[in-house]
Each structure stands twice: as C-alpha cells, then as structure tokens.
TrEMBL record, chain A:
Domain annotation Dehydrogenase E1 component: ranges: 18-314
Name this polypeptide is given: Acetoin:2,6-dichlorophenolindophenol oxidoreductase subunit alpha
Reaction(s) catalysed by this chain's protein: N(6)-[(R)-lipoyl]-L-lysyl-[protein] + pyruvate + H(+) = N(6)-[(R)-S(8)-acetyldihydrolipoyl]-L-lysyl-[protein] + CO2
Keyword tags: Oxidoreductase, Thiamine pyrophosphate
Cited SUPFAM superfamilies: Thiamin diphosphate-binding fold (THDP-binding)
Protein origin, superkingdom: Bacteria
Coiled coil: none
Organism per entry: Gemmobacter lanyuensis
Cofactor(s) required for function per UniProt: thiamine diphosphate
Amino acid sequence: MTSRPNLATETLLEMQRRMLRIRLFDERASKMVKRGYIPGTVHTSIGQEAQVVGACMALRPGDHMSGNHRSHGHPIGMGSPLGPLMAELVGKATGVCKGKGGSLHLADYAVGSLGESGITGSSIPIAVGAGLSAQVLGEDRVAICFFGDGAANQGVLYESMNLASAWKLPIIFLCENNHYALSTPAHTVTGGRIVDRAAGFGMPGVRVENGQDVLAVYDTVSEAVARARRGEGPTLVEVMTYRFREHSEGLRINVDYRDAAERELWLSRDPIQMFRTELIEMNRATVEEMDALDAVIAQEVEDCATFALESPDPAESVAYDDLYSDHYELEDVL
Amino acid sequence: MSVMTYIGAIGAAQREAMQADKRVIIIGEDVEANVYGTTGESKQRAESGDFVQQFGKMRIRNTPISEEAMVGAAIGAAMTGLRPIVDLSYSSFLYMAMDQFVNQAAKNRYMFGGQSSIPVVFRSAMFYGLNTGAHHSDRPYSMFMTIPGLKILAPASAADAKGLMRSAVDSDDPVLIFEAVPLWGQKEEVPDEEYHIPFGKARIRREGSDVTVVGISGSLPLAVQAADVMAESGVSCEVIDPRTLVPLDSASIVESVKKTGRLVIAEPAHRTCGAAAEISAIVAEKAQPWLKAPILRVTAPNMQIPFSPALERHFYPTKEKIVAAIRTVCGK
C-alpha cells in the first residue's frame, strides 16, 4: 500500500523542496570547488536525493541521524538551514561547525544530525548509541544511520547490527547502494545481497528497488520507523540508487568503470524530475507552482552561497577551542 | 575512613555514580555476573544485592564481544543523553575499537565545533607482570596520550582510583581510565564520604629535597619503596604521582625539579614515546638550568612481553631498578 494518496500536499511539496535543496546546493558546491572557493574535496548526493529525503522525511523532530562521506544531503534532508552548511564547506566562522569540520564532517544537532564521517562505516555505531539512549531513557525517538555499499563490507556494521538486534534498539540501518565504492563495482566485492544479511541478525531486511522514487523510500523507511517506535527493534533498508557525478569533485579517473548503458538508464531516472511530473499528474501542483518552487530554492541556494562567501574567516583562536568541554592549559596542547 | 582495595574502590565509585545519576549505565563483557568484582559485592552477590539487582538490566548490560560497536554505541549514547561507563576488561582490547576512540570519541566535539559533549568513561585493566603473554599484558596509556581530545587517567592507589573514577563519570569528555592489575588488591584508607579528585592535580606522595621521582601507575608504589631505601642512605626523595596523564600536572613536576635538581621517572609502559618520555621533554624544556644530572627513565623495554615468568619478571620497573637510577643521578 503506497502512501501516495494519503500524504498531505504540503508534505509532498516539502519532499520536493528538500530534494531540490540538495541538488542545487551540491551543484553550487561543485562549481565553488572548481573555482577554488571551497578547499579540499566534496562528495555530492546528486542523483541520490530521493533516497536521502525519503528516509529523512520518515523521521520526526527529536530523532537522530548519522551520515557518511557523501555528506551534504543528510543534514539538508533533516531540515538544516543551507547558509551555515555552505559556510562550513567554505571554512567560514559562520559554518555550522565553526569552520572546523568541513564538507566531510557536517553536523547540526539542532535537527538531530549527529555528524557525517570521513571514515567509511565509522559513524554507524553512533546511531546505535542514540538508539540505546532512547531505550534507556524511555524517550520516544529513533535513530537512522546512512552508509553506502562500500561500508556494507565493514565489520563494524555487523557488530552494530548484532548489538542493535540483540538489544532491540530503535535503529534504521539505511544502506545507500549507489553501486560503486569509488570506482569499485559493489557486486565485485560483495558476497550475496546486502539486504539478505539482515536475516543473519534476526531483523527484517527490505530492499527498495527504485530508490529514485522518493515515496517508495519514504514508505519503506516509515514502516521501519514505526516498527522501531513500537519497540520491535532495528531494520535494514537497502535502497538501490545511483550517483550521477564522479565519486568526488575534481576527481579524474582515466578508466571508464561505469557501463555506459547502465549509466544512461539511471540518468534517465532523475528523482527530482520524476517527482515533479508525478506531483503534477496527481494534481497536487501545477506546472507554474513547481516552477515557482524551483525558483524559490534556487534563490535559497544563491543566498546561502552569498552568505558563505561574505562571512568572515574564523579567528585563529577558534582552532584551539572545543577540544574538551572544560578549560585546559594551552601549553598542554601546543 | 575505611580500608579498601584498589579494585573495591573502583566498584564503590561505580555504585555511587549509578546511584547519583540515572543517566549512568555500565556496559561491557561479563558485567552482569560481576566477573571482575566491580559491579557488585563479589562474595555476597545474592544476599547484599549486586548491580543487576540494584539497578536493573536496563542499566547494567552484558555486551557481545564487539569492542568497536560497544565503544561506538557508548559514544553515540553519550552524545544523546547517557553517561555510559564501558568496561573493556583488558587494555589490549582497546585496539579492537581504535577507530571509535580516535575518529569519534576524540574528534567529534572538536570537529563539530563544540556541538557535542561526550561524557563516557572507558575502563580497562593492564594485566602486566602476571604471565598473561603478549596479547594480554599491554600498558597502552601512552599511545592514547597522543590523541588530543581524550583524557587519560592512571590511578596508583585505592583512594585515588575512587575519586578519579567519580570525576571521570562527571566529566563531559571521553575519559580512559587505565587500571594497574598488579595494584588491584592493594589496600588504602579511603574516605567514607563521597569525593571527587580533580584532573590535572598531581599527588605528592612524599616531600623531599635531593631528587624528584615520578612514579606512574603500578610503578608509583615501587617509587615510594625506593624512596624508603634511599632515605636510609641519607637521600631525600620527592615522590610524585601525576594520577592523570591528560591533563598532566606538569607544573608540579617542574617546580619539584627546580627544587631538587634531579629527576627519575618510572612507568610500566614501553620506553619510546611513553609518559616518561613526555615528562622528560617538558622538564628539559622548562627546568634544564636547574638540572644537576641527566634525567633518567625506568621503563619497560621496547619489546613484546614474553610469557615465561623467568623472562617477564625482568621487564618492568622494580624497586631495585628505581633505586639504581636514583643512585646514578645523585652520584651515590
């Protein structure tokens, strides 16, 4: 039973808004890397917006999320304002992490974003811990961890799944299967299907075959969330999706590791275009309204870039703050 | 005052912390059955009530043998409202969770711009000198000292263990407490009332004027014994226990060396990049003009730990080795 007829129009439009934010934010970030405004590297979620937003929209305020190196979509999907995120990518004082995290380490506790991670699989048990605290404190909240098909081969995932299952923690393990760990095709380094591994830990495993359909993701994750809230424990959700761009911005790989036909097929399944068409066909919005929505988000992204570029650099002293919660002698650090 | 063992003091601190704050939980391998004696009255388990009976299974939990998930989950739980104590039993097991210690516990507060507090305590025990072989004998506290963001404790007595453990639970930062198993059974008078010992405050175990002897963890009692021996030779030793290695009370050590002009440091860890090496460097930087003799370290060699008692017994600092070092720097 799909949620399509039941969801409020505003909820559907919010899904499109968040997907557009991710798309346009990442397109803008990509340009800013190219022009030298963003130092270091970034990994875009372009092409994976439905998978991110469908999952995040299934949560509610108070829930927690941990992410990974493909790191901008998750906080945006959770509802984080764009300005401090872009300022963080540029390394400014107004960044969501004061300029100390950067693209790979975005976190916005205000929206339940406990942090992205540059180490593959490393933040998975952080979400498990958020589920543990919910259970011990008797708080009605769940936690989701996003990880890729690459991280699905990290041992820490299986330790985490086992622990979450044994303790019936309210967790959603969400595998963003975009088919490639950098240049390595997932099927060449993965035994069996990732989703089937859930059975080994006594938890349900559900695969969303069309991860470009935001409502398909939303429906599946909503069910997993409901199960977690009922105290029935974790669920593994594997979402099949595709990244439209290279692994990271500026990366040049001379070997064509992606099959051309496969690529064309996935590129034709643009989650934002698909959902726009669907909303119009469902009579939830007119073409004009969707155009207007596009323009609003484009302006939001334009504004966030301006905010980031016009913000001051962090003061040098900021580099020496926040190591510990209490005062410490700087000479012990230097 | 009551007389308590070092391990008993750790257990008492855990009980007090559990009673004081519902957010405190204990997770680890075999904590429910109180295998190591820190989660209940070890002998009268059924009668006087162990931690499971007292606090319930929601707050005392056996974990699977999954150090990485256990440590990571504790970090995540600490970031979202709990104050977990993780019992990792052997210090050598910390390596299984290295990514979580280094990349999550130590970095999250800093790299997220201070958004997260991480009030979590990681207990582990250094089973050295007990013929447990190379996999169980590690004293890795100095490895963890090199990771900014972690607080590192190495109590050397029952009273310190109890007060430091309470402060560790109250700290909003990740704390690793390294217990010296050779000291677990050692007794000391411990105040009956609850108390906390602040981090970064060394304990001067003995005042003296001729040589400063810093003793770390299990080497501290040996340093005190060495001071007794030297007193018979008319050498006055000032014995200092740093108690916490991060933060380190370098000021007390430097001040002492300025008074005595000599320094011997004893610790059970490896020589290279050990706590003794760091303290030596600090004193060399800050008190070199006052030094009347080279600084000497008494440590374990940079060698893996052999199993045979015949081989292992020579490895760690002993009273005799510390005495010999003191004699050397004092020219006696």
